[in-house]
Amino acid sequence: xxxxxxxxxxxPCIPSDEELPHVFEDHEFDQSYPKSIRHLSDCHWSPVExxxxxxxxxxxxxxxxxxxxxCGTGKFCAIGAHTTxxxxxxxxxxxxxxxxxxxMLHRYGIAWVEIVHGNIADMSFDAFDAxxxxxxxxxxxxxxxxxxxxxEMAPQHYDDYTLHVQQQLEQRPMATRVVTYYGCCAxxxxxxxxxKTAYDGTLKLWIxxxxxxxxxxxxxxxxxxxxxx
Length: 229
Fold this sequence. Notes:
Blueprint: E1 4-8, H1 26-29, H2 35-38, H3 41-44, H4 48-58, E2 65-69, H5 75-83, E3 87-92, H6 95-108, E4 113-117, E5 130-133, H7 155-170, E6 177-181, E7 192-198, E8 203-208, H8 217-224
Parallel strand pairs: 2-3, 2-5, 3-4, 5-6
Antiparallel strand pairs: 1-4, 6-8, 7-8
Helix pairs in contact: 4-5
């Protein structure tokens, strides 16, 4: 189970001295974070435009529950909640990033966001409808991507986390949506199809289009039935 969570309630929004602007640039948004981590933005946080496009693809109806796997400082979750009608949850191992995310959400009064301080390997995906990954595990095998020494780095962690995400995504129902940004996409099972790319192929939009080996055939047949007119 996650150690704890920091939740910005649905309604009403937290009163705040500042408002998140409807149109903003990355450098403006990143000013909401402490200087000690702000410099990480270019390499480790999704750009604003990418966040908006990904969130709009993932949220297919009001209340869609989106999980950001390795959410860092909560930038994608904040922008997603601000620009769509979805509910966003981020899971992050680094305590200082969770704290920065909480402070940012409070500063702007953003609701429909939850930031969980924990390990993705401890989380079931059953409570979520859609998923976002910005290359969350490759720092374990590529030292150049390493953020800091706050969490233990090991190639075995890469294998374990990747397998866990694969297995969890396999169990999700047909038409489940996933967005990946950069990375080799090893977490995506073969039963998902990449239906769209953007930003020179670095942003990939995936949908579960066929049953995985462990899927219930009756569930697949039910999903394939045409909608009643």
